[in-house]
Amino acid sequence: MLRTAGILAAGLAAAFALNLLVANAIPPYPALVINLCGISIILAVSLNVINGLTGQFSLGHAGFMAIGAYVSAYFTTTLRYFDPEAARYISQAPLLDGLWGFPLALMAGGIAAAVAGLVVGIPTLRLKGDYLAIATLGFGEIVTILLANFRQVGGTKGLTSIPGHADTFWIYGAASVCITFSLFFQRSTFGRALIAIRENELAAEVMGIGAARMKVIAFIYGAFFAGIAGGLFAHLMLSISPANFGFMKSVEVVVMLVLGGLGSMTGAVVGAVILTILPEALRDIEREVNLSGLRMALYALILILLMLFRPQGIFGQRELSLKLLRRLVPGRRKESP
Amino acid sequence: MRKALGVLALMAVALAAGCGTKIGPGFDDKEVNLGLFVSTSGEIATFGEDTKKGVELAIEEINAAGGIKGKKIKLTHYDTASKPEEGKAAATKLATQDGVFVAMGAVASGISLAAAPEFQKYGIPMISPSSTNPTVTEQGNYIFRICYLDDFQGAACAVFAMNDLKAKKAAILQNQDDAYSTGLADFFEARFKKAGGTVVAKESYKKGTTDFNTQVTNIKAKSPDVVFLPCYYNDAALIAQQCRAQGLNVPLLGGDGWESDKLVPNAKGALEGCYFGNHYAEADENARVKAFVEAYRKKYGNAPSSLAALGYDVVYVVKKAIEDAGEFDRAKVRDALAKLKGFEGVTGKFDIDERRDARKSISMLKIEGEKFKFVRQINPSEVE
Questions:
Q1: Which of A117, B30, B337, B377 is the most buried (most CB within 10 A)?
Q2: B362, β-bridge pairs
Q3: Which residue out of A29, A162, A233 would a mutagenesis test of the B interface target, given it has the greatest number of B Cβ atoms within 10 Å?
């Protein structure tokens, strides 16, 4: 417990320092990429609890993200929409304002996503493997279709003029909380139970683990942080529309996990950072060659090569720990006497 | 302790180095750097590709004729991969790293909305060739567009249905998942009612639908004089066939989403004699349009789409604004853009209004065989 508090405190301090650095010394473009990386980290680490630890294949993460994004932005934004019945624009002042408005709105988004996780989780988690993937995929589609039909949140046009509250501190602060809790989870009795379910659900149940309940809890946990990530995304992008949270967004997060190593929290972080930076890093190459689509072709090629040479992902199921570091360091000494 | 000191030292350095972001002037003695951000990969890659081709053709022509006030145009393009977060990243990079003089883009409104706050923050004029969401130019006084909006397009179609097709009863079939479709439908409905007509049916379908028979049956039962189809060409072709199969033979009417080489072949004759509104007409007899179509065909081997035409025009708008401003100064170019009147492009003659949107006419086209016949232009004054 003390250890967890220590990690959390260190994470928050690092977020604070990084925010100072980004605000004062880092040019806007790298700063934006750093912020996007933070959001990807939250998404990947939270999905890792569902897909990696518990071994359930969810493709609905973008749906939870959308709920978090819309709920939080609904509270902080001046809403303006066209009412065809009255044939005029209707305006509504932000419901949450001021210093505590943003964190409260973020929490609201996270909680709304968690509730959705509960509602979706209870019926669908009886399904396994491909069937669960299809059910969660369906959930993601339902969310975007529902949002597209609510005029109050802009319908298909989405919300615009969202205040830019999400700075590096909030993003990395949330990422620290997400990583700390997930690590704590992984090492707790609860996490062991999840891993047992992943390895053999029947055996886990025989051992007295309530698999159905555990899976729903993991699902709610993942959905909550996906909602937080969505809220941060909305307040960083300043405009959102249902199309932002389609099927491809969910797939992107799954690819981050698979690349980093399914089940490894370190892997999730590394996968998220690599997949967010890679397309940006390839921009200059495409500009110099002036060949459209080259960037995405290279991106895909790099992914294929990584998967060919490390099919278990960069980290496999290992975590970056002091033990692993200690094992690596003497090894190097032997090579260069 | 040492670690803590290290962190403190780092923070001190960070604060000392802190300064406002300075962006480049965007031009030197020989060149002016223009930025472009459109999606050349992802779902809407063809739209971005066409826009980019139009932009590149215009730049080639301008550079061959001596450039803008003696400076050649250098184009810096970043792909936005049909994703708003990439649009924001591309915009930030164009503004702060390349320091472009003026930025052009994007096609999709979602991407323009993500990019606009960045250009506004650094005082770089941004001109979207084809984003139709009204909120795009509300993002700031440096954000412009040169296409007409969905509200005008929807209303113009309503006026055309009323005045030219003599319709009293209209039906609408919209794609409920698409902002473009619902936007056009809403504004068509409002204008048609205002002109004294009645909307007898408003049916919706989901993205990816291929069987529209239920909706068509409902519409047919209300016997409308015209059916408004605010959708893209693939849906329009399918709906038209199913309307004709059920014996609903009234004219069908659509917006610029219908424009495609594939519209007529896909519809298998079902759209014969139907109408749609577009940004420009390839068959227009205007000399400027003819020269553009010819040059485009020569360079790329196919007819230009509306997006290519708008991409072509956006570069000439930038040129005109810089010439009007008289010097390479972003604030003065912004003022010149805001005051732009009577610009003659291949997509028609237009003014920039007080909302920084283009006030321009729409070309109504009639489908005759394989050709789109130019019917007439509807001017903004007719619709308002």
A1: A117
A2: B378
A3: A29
Structure tokens belonging to residue A22: 């980004």
| Buried/exposed code over A269-306 (b: 16+ C-beta within 10 A; e: otherwise) | bbbbbbbbbebbebbeebbeeeebebbbebbeeebeeb
* pLDDT computed for residue A23 by the predictor: 86
Ranges A8-22, A42-56, A70-84, A108-122: which has the least confidence:
A70-84
* For chain A, domain boundaries: 2-246
Rg (CA), chain A: 21
Of A213, A235, A228, A234, the C-alpha closest to A111 is A228
DSSP β-ladder status, B275-278 and B252-254: parallel
Each domain of chain B, given as residue ranges in start order, spans 31-148+286-352, 151-278+364-383
Using alpha carbons, select from A283, A229, A286, A239 the residue that is nearest to residue A45.
Answer: A229
Q: Which amino acid type is present at position A228?
A: I
Residue of B nearest to A237 (CA): B114
For residue B169, the surrounding DSSP H or E stretch is strand B169-175
Lookup: tokens for A182: 């997930």
Between chain A and chain B, how many beta carbons pairs sit less than 8 Å apart?
128
What per-residue string of b and e applies to B153-185 under the rule 16 or more CB within 10 Å gives b? bbbbbbbbbbeebebbbbbbbbbbbbbbbbbbb
- pLDDT at residue A86, rounded to an integer: 65
Contact predicate B227/B252, CB 8 Å: yes
Over residues A37-61, the pLDDT tens digits come to: 999 999 999 999 999 999 888 999 9
The alpha carbon of B371 is separated from its chain's Cα centroid by a whole number of angstroms, namely 23
Asked if residue B98 lies in contact with residue B33, where contact means CB atoms within 8 angstroms, the answer is: yes
Please report residues of A whose CB lies closer than 8 A to that of B93. 29, 283
Cβ–Cβ below 8 Å for A283 and B177: no
Q: What three-state secondary structure class fits B240?
A: helix
Q: Identify residue B165 by its one-letter amino acid code.
A: L
pLDDT tier for residue B183 given thresholds of 50, 70 and 90: confident
CB contact under 8 A, A238 and B114: yes
| Rounded average pLDDT over B256-280 | 89
A79-83 and B31-38 beta bridge pairing = unpaired
Residue B13 confidence (pLDDT): 46
Q: Between 3.50.50.60, 3.30.70.560, 3.40.50.300, 3.40.50.2300, what CATH number should domain B151-278+364-383 receive?
A: 3.40.50.2300
pLDDT higher at B223 or A320: B223
H helix intervals, chain A: 2-24, 28-47, 61-76, 101-124, 129-148, 168-187, 189-199, 201-206, 211-237, 247-260, 265-281, 283-289, 294-309, 322-335
CATH fourth-level superfamily of B31-148+286-352: Response regulator (3.40.50.2300)
CA–CA distance, A289 with B4 (Å, rounded to integer): 45
Q: Which residue has the tokens 């802009």?
A: A154
Residue A312: pLDDT band by 50, 70, 90 thresholds? Answer: confident
Which residues in chain A have their CB less than 8 angstroms from residue B139's CB?
A: 160-161
CB atoms within 10 A of CB B344: 13
The two tokens of residue B350 are 């237009």
CA–CA separation, A305 and A320 (whole Å): 23
The pLDDT, as a whole number, for residue A84 is 62
pLDDT band for position A160 (50/70/90)? confident
Greater confidence (B316 vs B22) lies with: B316
Does the structure show a pLDDT above 50 at A239?
Answer: yes
User: Is the pLDDT score of B16 beyond 70?
Assistant: no
- DSSP letters along A189-258, please? HHHHHHHHHHH-HHHHHHTT--HHHHHHHHHHHHHHHHHHHHHHHHHHHS-B-GGGGSHHHHHHHHHHHH
- CA A155 to the chain's CA centroid: 24
